[in-house]
TrEMBL record:
Biased composition (Polar residues): 1-12
UniProt xrefs under CDD domains: RasGAP_GAPA (cd05132)
Gene3D superfamilies per record: GTPase Activation - p120gap, domain 1
SMART domains named in the record: RasGAP (SM00323)
Domain of life: Eukaryota
One GO CC annotation: cell cortex
PANTHER family, alphabetized: GTPASE-ACTIVATING PROTEIN, RAS GTPASE-ACTIVATING PROTEIN WITH IQ MOTIF
The name this protein goes by in its record: Ras-GAP domain-containing protein
Region of interest called Disordered, as start-end residue ranges on this chain: 1-23
GO molecular function, one term: GTPase activator activity
Length: 770
């Protein structure tokens, strides 16, 4: 199928199943697919489809790489603080070091052929029967879930745009959610706690289709907001009071007696000047939040099918478990998933989703946080116990309650895919190229988790899962990171016989007659011929016998074979009185013409989807580069810590060098200064915000030097003046700790610098200088 969304769009498709007894659907759909995806055809549509398939494959592969990198960065975030504070033993440092090793394609060995065959059977079973994976996801601990999710979301069902894998993954979600609702003890805690299930739902939203939606819907809105760097919309009375007092002190040089510092929140809130400052900000915040809400509501039709389908399951399961639950309460659960797990993380940290170029400045960052809080209060029952000042924004909640409930209910209005999935399963059994790209450690980790919970997953010794695991025996140990190679694992069933003739199988299942099969196949071949012969269908009505004759007498062997075959099939249909030459085969003509219209529309959809996904792919690659740069900083720092420890153990003078180059424990000469203009640093995105007037910026430059390894001085100079206007001493530890704590701005009074990019620049300069 060209896209898993096509047969399941909210409005439906003329060819979509309406009930389980639509007998001709599966076979008819099969021949439409054959006409649509014939590998021998080289027209505009087939070329566009090939490009789109390649792009989707690259997005799926890159999404997995990003997921793995994000896990590495999270791991190092948790360890780097200990390194900075010198609280990590040497053996722990070695463990962290191993965590950063690259995979060597020549290291390690693949399992023997017989064992690979057993894994092929096991992973076919896991993929095609999602209940096993669903049970496993509920059984594992929170510590184990990320590794399992990597395998489930990005390997087992890693082709994010392929209908069968997407349907199976959603079937797994239904099992997981059903169990979550069955075991729930109270309504309020459903889906809100940080559990393996909630982690699964968040991870699902980070796949390609979800990223594409966020980019198209939120990017422009957020970028237009963060352009207003100086727009301060703080409404917390305590913060507003402190800002007001600071400003008065700066302007007058004294602190008024009636405005002491350190007042309690209620005193700040009662101050008339504070109230006057906050009032217009509340109005503006509600206007901005309304614009965000309107954009999201208008995006209904572009919300990925899978996310809408999960919303539908949440509504359905809630109604079954809690029949007396109000519509508002049900919508709060749906909103908890859609806003809390999907929309709001991208609003609060747009740079992590690559919706913006760099981290927003201080004021826009706070505004985005307030917008996210407002959307969350709207989607959930608002609670102002912790942040009483947010109650001032309650009119936004009250005015939009009915509107958001209607939106959340409409989100759930999507068709199911079970009948389509049945055909996908037939297709899977008839294909010989079902495969997944899986690392050795993913293979062994899944094996180990299955063995660990085997008695729950497959208590009966005759169950297929138990038979396969008994034959495989204990799971191999995890291999070292550099030996963790990726292999292409072909999937096939040990128990189901591959379908040699899918048409015959579908005929038997759907009670479709031989005459109907002949008709559908004939129509399909005519569509393929018209696509292969230039200008074949320019004249209307379409001359079907003429097209068959032209193909049969062409110089192309494939066309000749199809032309002769379709002439014979048309003659046979006429003898069976299914079509009639006297009316120029009118019925067949009309259906072929309708298929061609569909394919023409499909080409436009394919091209439009390609344009959209190109932007998504670029975003994912940018994010990959950003994550890699973070890892590089951590790697460099770790090398220096180890170097310092080694030298200290040897009785030398332990020093930290930034670039990971070993230095003798002797006194080292200062390096630099290296000169950069304001324009250079602005162009590189290192300067995030500048208070230097535009006309003076050409006269500003920065000298960067390193007096001792691991310490740096950034000095801001004005041309013609000998002394620096200001200097800042930096330690590599401090910069890394800022990065770890997600504090991305470094304040130099006149300019604010991007911390990760400063780290990158220092690494670039000083790791290569002798």
């Amino acid at each position: 199928m060209s896209s898993f969304t096509d047969p399941m769009s909210p409005t439906g498709d003329s060819r979509r199943l309406t009930n389980r007894n639509t007998n001709r659907y599966s076979v008819n759909q099969l021949y439409s697919m054959a006409a649509e995806n014939d590998p021998d055809i080289e027209d505009d549509l087939s070329r566009a489809q090939k490009r789109l398939r390649d792009l989707k494959g690259r997005i799926s592969a890159q999404s997995k790489k990003n997921f793995v990198l994000e896990r590495d960065v999270r791991y190092l975030d948790s360890r780097i603080a200990l390194l900075i504070q010198n609280r990590m033993a040497l053996d722990e440092q070695n463990e962290v070091q191993q965590h950063l090793e690259e995979v060597d394609p020549n290291e390690g060995a693949f399992p023997p052929e017989r064992r690979l065959t057993q894994y092929s059977n096991l992973f076919f079973l896991l993929q095609s029967e999602p209940r096993h994976v669903a049970s496993l996801c509920r059984l594992v601990s929170l510590v184990e879930i990320d590794t399992l999710l990597q395998t489930v979301m990005f390997t087992l069902y890693g082709n994010q745009y392929e209908s069968r894998e997407e349907h199976l993954l959603l079937t797994m979600f239904q099992s997981v959610l059903s169990a979550q609702f069955e075991t729930a003890t109270e309504f309020g805690s459903l889906l809100r706690a940080n559990t393996p299930v909630s982690r699964m739902m968040t991870t699902y939203t980070r796949r390609g289709p979800g990223q594409s939606y966020l980019k198209s819907v939120l990017s422009d809105r957020i970028n237009s907001l963060i352009e207003h760097r100086d727009l301060n919309l703080e409404i917390n009375p305590l913060k507003v009071y402190e800002q007001m007092v600071t400003q008065i002190e700066e302007e007058t040089g004294t602190l008024p007696a009636n405005l002491p510092r350190g007042v309690p929140p209620e005193v700040a809130a009662a101050n008339p000047d504070v109230q006057a400052i906050i009032a217009p900000r509340l109005t503006m915040l509600m206007e901005i939040a309304n614009s965000f809400l309107l954009t999201i509501i208008e995006s209904m039709d572009t919300v990925p099918y899978g996310i809408r389908w999960i919303c539908k399951q949440i509504r359905s399961l809630t109604k079954r478990k809690y029949p007396d639950a109000t519509d508002y309460a049900i919508c709060s659960l749906i909103g908890g998933f859609f806003f809390l797990r999907f929309i709001n993380p991208a609003v609060v940290t747009p740079q992590a989703y690559m919706l913006v170029e760099g981290p927003p400045a201080k004021h826009p960052r706070r505004t985005l946080t307030l917008i996210a809080k407002m959307l969350q209060n709207l989607a959930n029952k608002p609670s102002y116990a912790k942040e009483a000042y947010m109650s001032s924004l309650n009119p936004f909640v009250e005015n939009n309650k009915a509107r958001i409930n209607l939106f959340l209910n409409n989100l759930c209005e999507v068709g199911d895919f079970y009948d389509t999935l049945e055909m996908d399963q037939y297709m899977a059994l008839s294909k010989k190229d079902l495969l997944i790209h899986i690392t050795l450690n993913e293979l062994y980790n899944t094996h180990q988790l299955l063995m660990q919970h085997l008695n729950v997953l497959a208590p009966n010794e005759k169950q297929h899962l138990r038979i396969l695991l008994d034959e495989l025996g204990p799971a191999p140990a995890q291999v070292p990171r550099k030996e963790n190679r990726t292999l292409d694992l072909n999937l096939f069933s040990r128990w189901e016989t591959p379908i040699q003739d899918i048409t015959t199988a579908l005929m038997a299942e759907n009670n479709v007659t031989q005459n109907e099969i002949l008709y559908m196949e004939t129509k399909s071949i005519f569509v393929q011929l018209i696509r292969s012969i230039p200008h074949a269908a320019e004249k209307r009505p379409i001359n079907l016998p003429g097209i068959a004759e032209k193909a049969a007498t062409s110089r192309d062997a494939t066309l000749v074979r199809k032309g002769i075959k379709v002439k014979e099939m048309l003659r046979e249909l006429e003898e069976l009185k299914v079509v009639d030459r006297k009316d120029d085969y009118k019925l067949m003509q009309e259906e072929v013409a309708a298929e061609l219209v569909h394919l023409g529309n499909l080409r436009e959809k394919v091209l439009q989807e390609s344009r959209s996904l190109e932007a998504v792919y670029k975003t994912i690659c940018d994010h990959n580069n950003y994550l890699r740069s973070q890892l590089e900083q951590y790697k460099a720092y770790l090398q220096n810590v180890r170097f310092a420890a080694d030298k200290g153990a040897a009785g030398g003078v332990g020093v930290l060098a930034f670039g990971g180059k070993e230095r003798k424990p002797t006194k080292t000469a200062p390096q630099g200064p290296f000169r950069y203009t304001h324009a250079q640093l602005e162009k590189e995105g290192i300067i995030v915000e500048s208070n230097v007037p535009d006309n003076r910026r050409p006269n500003i430059y920065f000298n960067i030097s390193s007096p001792t390894p691991g310490t740096f001085i950034i000095a801001l100079h004005y041309k013609g003046r000998e002394k620096a206007i200001l200097e800042m001493d930096l330690k590599i530890d401090d910069l890394l700790e800022k990065q770890k704590d997600n504090k991305h701005l470094l304040d130099l009074e006149y300019v604010q610098l991007n911390v990760p990019k400063v780290l990158g620049l220092l690494n670039k300069i000083f790791s290569k200088k002798k």
